[in-house]
Amino acid sequence: MGHETDFTVSDFVADLRAPTPTAAAELAVPSILDLKKQLLTDTNRLQQTLQYRLNSYKDRLRSLNQAYAFKYPIHLTRQKEQDLDRHVQRLNRTIKTYFRQKQTELNQSQKRLFTFKPMSMVLQQSQELSYKKNRLNQAIKKK
């Protein structure tokens, strides 16, 4: 009763306590000077970031403009055409060599086949088989 200050439960659980409503309003709302200062800081940071990115893109564009492909596109195209022609010629030579080799192998196989003469061997074996068959039949008749 009397001279002691009253406390509510909310006073004990609050993060911050103000003795008067005016003081509470001052604590709850930042000052205009603080807001202006933060806005100026954020604006400066944003401008620096944008300037850095702009400079980075300008450097990249300069680098691309200096690239051989953009400076001399016709030369690069001609160079690539020459490379392609060289590869095509090499491929054609390789194909011709491959077919010549296979033709040689085929010719050799044909020569061996004609030397071997399988048809004459089949005919000879057939005649021999016929002869043996006749002899066998005669031997059977004799028995």
Walk me through what this model shows:
- By secondary structure, the protein is mostly helical.
- The protein has a domain at 9-66.
- Helices cover 85% and strands 0% of the residues.
- It has helices spanning 9-13, 21-28, 32-66, 68-71, 73-116, 118-142.
- The longest helix has 44 residues, at 73-116.
- The protein is elongated.
Quick tags:
mainly alpha, elongated, 6 helices
Give the secondary structure arrangement, pairings included.
Elements lengths: L8 H5 L7 H8 L3 H35 L1 H4 L1 H44 L1 H25 L1
For the residues shown, what is the average pLDDT? 88
Pattern of helices and strands: HHHHHH
Q: Which strand-content bin applies to the residues?
A: under 5%
**Poorly predicted parts:** none
Distance between the termini: 153 Å
Can you describe this structure in just a few lines?
By secondary structure, the chain is an all-alpha fold. It has helices spanning 9-13, 21-28, 32-66, 68-71, 73-116, 118-142. The protein is 85% helix and 0% strand.
